[in-house]
Specification:
The protein has about 300 residues and is an all-alpha fold. Helix content is about 60%, strand content about 0%. The protein contains 14 helices and no strands.
Length: about 300
């Protein structure tokens, strides 16, 4: 019997990630303040974030569980089992990305005893509290603090209100940038599918009402990366849209995957690692969430 698109997408995406895991390795410049954070720590943190969720939602008896665990272990070892976060803290004490990446590992139970108290000391400063950031990024930092055992001072409701989604904007103002902002607000509030404080009822209802139209628009435009993020959002809602809404999306994503299992960010995009890894991660992430919610059976 042919596997359901959800299972097929997850299997092939994880195969690609395993085959290309060496591209997630940190280079010699990973500790340099001038190093390419978006090409080093960011991909590694995203790998950890996705694997932390898939590890939780994939039964140990499933062969995919061992594959996810291997990727998570690989990512943790790249940080010297957390020791590199201490060195980053010393080199860039007011940079937030080390804490954001660390929190992804902490969500999977991987922690470093020396890093968290150091990060907490910096987080108590006014300089940290008043850092000017995009509202969605700020929400991610606040929740990363909580994951890392750092008491938060900012009321979560006020942080959410300042995001695009928190303002309940006109649905027709949805476009690429606001789309990614919306999906990440959902991911942060649901702890990337692992729980979290959850979406306020008003936001959840708004997203559920308009997600079918947004998803159809992204699929039509061949925006595979954002489409996968929206499919992950659909599986994260308290009351997901009906399966008919997402089935077309999974069929399109499965058809867009390369024979290797990689998924380009866009239909017209390049197929190199830089333009494939994130959408492939999101395909695996969305598929794992969807299967966990029972919206797409595994076989």
């Amino acid at each position: 019997m042919t596997a359901h698109p959800v299972r097929r997408v997850e299997e092939t995406a994880l195969s690609w990630l395993t085959e290309h895991q060496h591209h997630f390795a940190l280079g010699a410049d990973a500790l340099s303040p001038e190093g390419p954070v978006n090409a080093s720590w960011k991909p590694l943190g995203e790998l950890a974030q996705v694997c932390a969720t898939l590890s939780l939602h994939t039964p140990p008896s499933d062969p995919l569980h061992a594959r996810v665990q291997d990727l998570l272990t690989f990512a943790w070892h790249q940080t010297d089992d957390g020791a590199l976060f201490v060195r980053l803290q010393q080199a860039e004490p007011f940079a937030t990305y080390p804490l954001e990446v660390y929190a992804a590992f902490a969500a999977a139970g991987l922690r470093h005893p020396d890093y968290e108290p150091r990060a907490a000391t910096v987080a108590r400063t006014r300089g940290w509290q008043l850092a000017e950031q995009d509202p969605t990024r700020r929400l991610g930092v606040v929740l990363a603090e909580r994951h890392s055992g750092i008491p938060g001072r900012a009321p979560l409701e006020r942080v959410v209100e300042r995001t695009w989604l928190g303002g309940l904007p006109e649905p027709w103002t949805f476009e690429r940038h606001s789309g990614y902002a919306l999906t990440h607000v959902v991911f942060h509030l649901t702890d990337w599918g692992r729980g979290g404080p959850g979406l306020p009822a008003e936001l959840a209802e708004y997203v559920r009402d308009w997600l079918p139209a947004w998803l159809a628009t992204c699929l039509e435009a061949g925006m595979w990366d954002l489409s996968c993020e929206l499919l992950a959002v659909a599986a994260s809602l308290p009351h997901p849209p009906d399966e008919a809404t997402t089935h077309e999306g999974w069929t399109r994503i499965a058809a867009a995957q390369l024979p290797s299992g990689g998924l380009p960010e866009e239909a017209s995009g390049a197929g190199d690692f830089a333009h494939t890894y994130h959408s492939t991660l999101m395909a695996a992430f969305a598929a794992g969430l969807t299967a966990h919610r029972g919206q797409g059976e595994y076989g």
